[in-house]
Amino acid sequence: GPAHPPNPRELAERYPSGETAQLRRVYVRAEHRRRGLARRLVGELLAFAAADGGYRAAYLHTDPNVPGAEAFWRSLGKIVHDEREDTDGGNGVVHFEIPMER
């Protein structure tokens, strides 16, 4: 799960390591985008985590300044914390929970 720091403490508590599948560095080269590859890759990763049986949640965070990243993750999950709304600005990242297949 997300470590505190640098992530907000409430996220580290909500998504503890060992119970949380954390997606990191999902990337598709520009010339292969808009073909469903990332969606399929994420689906396979979530199915793999669900088959393990030990995870109760899937979590990730993204930099909203990366073109298309925030919109892609919004299409798959829900925002659980947006650091752009923090009074101190946080790190400016957006945190998501993605539903796991059961």
Summarize the structure.
With 102 residues, the protein is of the alpha+beta class.
Structure notes:
This protein is of the alpha+beta class. It has a single domain, classed as Gcn5-related N-acetyltransferase (GNAT) (Aminopeptidase). It is 29% helix and 19% strand. It has helices at residues 9-14, 37-52, 69-76; strands at residues 20-22, 57-62, 78-82, 94-98. Strands 1-2-4-3 form a 4-stranded mixed β-sheet, with helices on one face. The longest helix is centred in the middle third of the chain and has 16 residues, at 37-52. It is flat. The mean pLDDT is 93.
Note the beta-strand portion.
Answer: 15-25%
The side-by-side strand order for the widest beta sheet comes to 1-2-4-3
Q: Name the helix and strand elements from N-terminus to C-terminus, one letter apiece.
A: HEHEHEE
User: Could you say which structural class the secondary elements and strand pairing correspond to?
Assistant: alpha+beta
Average pLDDT over all residues? 93
Helix content: 25-40%
The global form is flat
CATH class assignment: Alpha Beta
Number of strands: 4
- Low-confidence spans: none
Distance between the termini: 19 Å
CATH architecture label name:
3-Layer(aba) Sandwich
Please, what is the CATH homologous superfamily? Gcn5-related N-acetyltransferase (GNAT)
CATH topology: Aminopeptidase
